[in-house]
Amino acid sequence: MGKLSYTARIFYGIAIAVLGFLTLYYHDFPYILIPPHDSWVKGLTPVTYISGIFLVLAGGCIVFGKKIMPVSILLGGMLLAVFCCYFIPYQLMASSRYMHFGEWENAAKELALASGALVLAGLFLQKLMPLGVVLFSLTIISFGIDHFLFAHEASDYIPSWVPNHLFWMYFTGSALLGSGIAIMLNIRRALAAILLGSMIFIWFIILHIPRVIADPSGGEVASAMLALAYCGIAFVIAGAGAAKKRA
Questions:
Q1: At a CB cut-off of 8 Å and minimum separation 6, what does 223 contact?
Q2: Residues near 235 by Cβ (< 8 Å), separated by ≥ 6?
Q3: Residue ranges of the domains in the chain?
Q4: Which of 1, 177, 200, 225 could form a disulfide linkage to 15, CB 3.0–4.6 angstroms apart?
């Protein structure tokens, strides 16, 4: 499990660093870091650059194992603050469909990234691990529900060479729901997290990489990095659970 946790940390760190590079390259935040915005964000160029640099440095520290605990706490705190102080008010006030579950998808993605930072910090400060695990589980469960709610709309995302698209949407939705519940309730948590991470890594290889090659735009790269980050978070949880069991 040691090698698994090491690889998982690198996956998450790379994802965060690339999101930072995207922020700097496009002079704008990737869609999952803040809610949809208009031209007002162009007036916050210094904030955009500072945020991008911070994400690159935070991701680099995580990849190379430098100051992981303070960096992860700072990163997780920042992402949680954005979720609580920005995403929630935006969804409640700016969106007329805030009661529609699918409207919260991007907020859940940002919360999942925050949970990953807390899980990493929890490797050193155990009090943070339960919070990170619960938040990650909730987001995975929400993604599973999305697979059922939007199965027909999202089925075209699956490569054309894969048969029975609708079946795979429901199958992966069930897998997300089951693994999220198992991780939250600590039911064979390490095994559930390994299976979840493996499934998401397969998505990263067969779904996201070809899409990035075909269209290397910021949105596709950001989506691929999200998958890589989720995979890393799941594997870190698996490694932590196995280590605790051995102890």
A1: 208, 211
A2: 4, 5, 7, 8, 11, 193, 194, 197
A3: 2-246
A4: 225
Q: Which structure tokens are listed for 49? A: 């650059």
Which of the 8 DSSP states describes residue 188?
A: S
- Indicate if the pLDDT at residue 37 is higher than 80: no
> Is the torsion defined by CA of 141, 145, 148, 150 positive or negative?
negative
Residues 84-132 pLDDT 10s: 988 888 777 765 555 565 677 888 999 999 999 999 999 999 999 999 9
C-beta pairs of 5-8 under 8 Å, 24+ apart in sequence: 5/123, 5/235, 5/236, 5/239, 5/240, 5/243, 7/232, 7/235, 8/197, 8/231, 8/232, 8/233, 8/234, 8/235, 8/236, 8/238, 8/239
Which residue do the tokens 């698209």 mark? 165
Mean pLDDT of 187-209: 96
What pLDDT, on the 0 to 100 scale, is given for residue 33? 81
Question: Residue 41 in contact with residue 80, Cβ under 8 Å?
Answer: no
Cα–Cα distance measured from residue 168 to residue 174, given in angstroms and rounded to the nearest whole number:
10
Quote the CA–CA distance of 202 and 130 in Å, as a whole number.
Answer: 27
- Measure the CA angle with vertex 223, ends 132 and 184; round to 5°: 25
CB 154 within 8 A of CB 169: yes
pLDDT at 160 (0 to 100): 86
